[in-house]
Amino acid sequence: MSKFFALIPAAGSGARMGNELPKQYLALNSRPMIYHAICTLCQNQFIAGVFVVLAPSDGEWHKYDWSEFSEKLVVLSCGGLTRADSVLNGLTAAKQKNLVDSNDWILVHDAARPCLTSIQLDKLINELSIDEVGGLLAVPVADTLKRCSNTENRVAHTESRENLWQAQTPQMFRYDLLTHALRSATSINVTDDAGAVEALGFHPKLVLGDAYNFKVTYPQDLALAELIIQKRNNP
Ligand code: CTP
Ligand code: MG
Fold first, then answer.
1. Measured from the CB, is residue 13 less than 6 Å from ligand 1?
2. How far apart are CA 152 and CA 70, in angstroms?
3. Domain assignment of residue 113, given as a range
4. Which member of 49, 53, 136, 233 has the greatest number of CB atoms within 10 A?
5. 80 lines ligand 1 (CB under 6 A)
6. CA 1–ligand 1 middle distance (angstroms)
């Protein structure tokens, strides 16, 4: 029987956040941001283990007590220069430690998406566990899209948003396919796991998620995530 594992790439610096502290450690509801994703993933009944991929130079992780998650949490200090490198290094390290099998499902989830709910996570697993390829949480694009023509920020034209979706995480693929895809993708610029799988000619499934599962990227996103989590804790 294939098992389900989560892998959280958390080796980024958060350049767009503009804070000296990598954004995954910024305080969100009195916890470092990454705590929230770890908590949702570790509490999930289907998930057998959660790998967190840190930068080798990480000096923050050890400042917190993670013992409540010790049954499932495995720290891998092998992050790379890009997100794809961090995911691939984490997958390779987990295999070297005999923690995963080739056929197991891997759910890659950004440390910077703290508002993932167990409902969304269960939905993703239920919809994809019998799928040939795998897929990802995503939401249809709601806004009108403008193509910018030049450096003066003038509109060249309006893009159709028909059939356009915004990719989120978790992105769920079997170990072997994902590893093969990321290894093959080293020369192309993939910004998510599905992109690497697509480059092999596969068509990952889009599983309808919700807008709450946005990625905290800019300072204002942090305040929004805090409001969402506070509201959930005090409905
Ligand atoms: N990530 C990673 N290794 C990298 C780059 C990113 O593990 N070399 C992780 C981030 O820590 C984050 C996730 O990938 O959890 C999504 O990336 P992003 O939101 O772009 O985070 P950063 O790269 O840290 O932010 P920025 O692009 O603004 O620098
Ligand atoms: Mg980045």
1. yes
2. 52
3. 4-233
4. 53
5. yes
6. 32
Closest ligand 1 atom, residue 17 Cα: 28
User: Smallest Cα–Cα separation from 75: which of 34, 112, 44, 43?
Assistant: 34
Q: What is the pLDDT of residues 95-125, one digit of tens each?
A: 999 999 999 999 999 999 999 999 999 999 9
Residues 6+ apart with CB under 8 A from 151: none
pTM more than 0.90 = yes
Question: What would the two tokens of residue 204 be?
Answer: 């990952």
Buried b (16+ CB within 10 A) or exposed e, 27-37: ebbeebbbbbb
- Asked if residues 48 and 3 have their Cβ atoms less than 8 Å apart, the reply is yes
Instruction: Tell me what the mean pLDDT of segment 60-71 comes to.
Output: 98
Confidence of residue 1 (pLDDT cuts 50, 70, 90): confident
For 190-227, the DSSP string reads -SSHHHHHHTTT--PEEEE--GGG----SHHHHHHHHH
Residues 6+ apart with CB under 8 A from 127: 135, 205, 207
Distance, CA of 62 to CA of 4 (rounded, Å): 26
Total domains present in the chain: 1
Q: Which two tokens stand for residue 189?
A: 């610029």
8 alpha carbon, closest ligand = 1
The CATH number for 160's domain is 3.90.550.10
